[in-house]
Amino acid sequence: MKKLSQKELLKLDLIAVRIRKHIIEMLYQAKSGHPGGSLSAVDALVALYFVHMNHNPKKPNDPNRDRFILSKGHAAPALYATLAESGYFNVKELGKLRKINSILQGHPVCTSTPGVEASTGSLGHGLSFSNGVALAGKLDKKDYKVYCMMGDGETEEGQVWEAAAVASHYKLDNITAMIDRNYLQIDGNTEDVLKLESVKERWSSFGWHTIEIEGHNIKKILEALDQADNTKNKPTMIILNTIKGKGVSFMENNVDFHGVPPNQMERNYAMEELTQLEIKLEAQLK
Amino acid sequence: MSSKLMFNPRNAYGEALIELGEKHKNLVVLDADLSKSTKTIMFAKKYPERFFEMGIAEANMISTAAGLASCGKIPFVSTFAVFATGRVYDQIRMDVAYSRANVKIFATHGGISVGEDGASHQMIEDIALMRALPNMTVLAPSDATQTKKIVHLMAENIGPMYARVGRADAPIIYSEKDLEELKIGKGIVVEDGKDITFIATGTMVEPALEAKKILKEQGISARVIDMHTVKPLDEKLVLKCAKETKAIITAEEHSIIGGLGSAVAEILAENNVQTRFLRMGIKDVFCESGSPAELWEKYELNEKHMVKKAQNLLKK
Ligand SMILES: Cc1ncc(C[n+]2csc(CCOP(=O)(O)OP(=O)(O)O)c2C)c(N)n1
Ligand SMILES: [Mg+2]
Question: How far is the CA of B32 from the centre of ligand 2 (A)?
């Protein structure tokens, strides 16, 4: 990878803050949706869309593009804000999230939104879909890569492990999957709901190359993505240790903000916090 | 609408489970990371040892419930309708329906009034899927009072059963006394009428009652049937309505393919009944995000559209 300067990294952090602001505003306007898992996924999305992936927002159907599949579809606001900031569609569309006649459905739909690769929202499908895309890439001798993000709770689905076996069996080294390891789902902590224990060992034992990193450090995410791309003959799993609700103090590690949008006061408070961070980063960039 | 007493059928389900848990020590409850939404959390708090959190793994949950049932437990299994049927169809087919397991699948968030989550979460094929399964009873209660009663009947009658309610609060239609005689498989004549019959199920009973009022002002007398049991269907009642009124409209928050409308059409056709007939439901499309009221309007499933359709049908 090309070495990013301190300034370039700061710029990425700034983009992440702006995406988090979009998420808060979108969910506030929509009056429904999922803040926690959207906020925890942002930094990986920034690393992928603003540095790592080979993609062109003007050519969303380019057959050679890298693909990103958001298997944890309820984090749609994070994906939509990332796509809009990347230039796939006008940022103004974000205000129509979850409203009638909108291109931004509550959960991603590949037939509605430019840049959305797969229709998700029913958890557990994304990795299987990614395997299909990766197998097609091998058949067609294309060198695009497939990136897939799942929730940690999502990996309780049996289908995820069927997909894990297939990716390993077919040596799909063109797949890099990520788990947003925030330790929370809806009914509580993942270890109380249905313990996942050592996520890393599970994936290793299925034949995956596994990397575990801090999921809000864009530099580390980029390094892990490079390592994944250079791993041959096996798929790679990057376990992103994250904080659900990251960036908004009262949402962080708070299971109550899984699927409840901010009210007006909460939105104002969240925007204030994020704006302070934005100002700080802008000052550092000067 | 605003003056009506509202109550969420999901809460009625939670309350019923608590009552039943006290009465039936072999009643167990399973959920897949949605206990706060399905309200099984109420049972979980009261009877933690008889509640099984299965994680986000619905297929496993259904087969596990069948195993529990094979040992004399009465498992109530809950999640959103979309995950309670489509996602686990083969598990239901083999382990529940084929095996005649005494599993009670109680699904919430059925229909398009799930709203903003979008079509991925709006289950409009569950009644069709469950209805096609031999041995399966299919229920769609219309308000909280009826939900409670039906949950009791599910526990007290043996066999595979599927029930679905919506997400939203719903106006109260019945008192407990109204439903003392309620039986699975017997539709309710909520309002009598002689010109046209609305045969509605679940969330569509209430708008049908509203439509009746509007039609009355126009001199049209509508009968409203609450068909809480889609299978086994109350065929006698359907045929009676076909004979006694001039037209039939079915209404369901479900695809027009395979649900109540199809079931009624099958009965009418096979009995050589000549009547004016219309199915109201989702017309073979996936819907979209939006508020429940907006969606009911756009997809023509509210009292306004019922009135229009009734007028047109009677003109034919
Ligand atoms: C198959 C399926 N079952 C249940 C749900 C309902 N649901 C939506 S989000 C969620 C919890 C997800 O937790 P996790 O994967 O950890 O996501 P995150 O913490 O990143 O939000 C559940 C159960 C669903 N969308 N799909
Ligand atoms: Mg999680």
Answer: 14
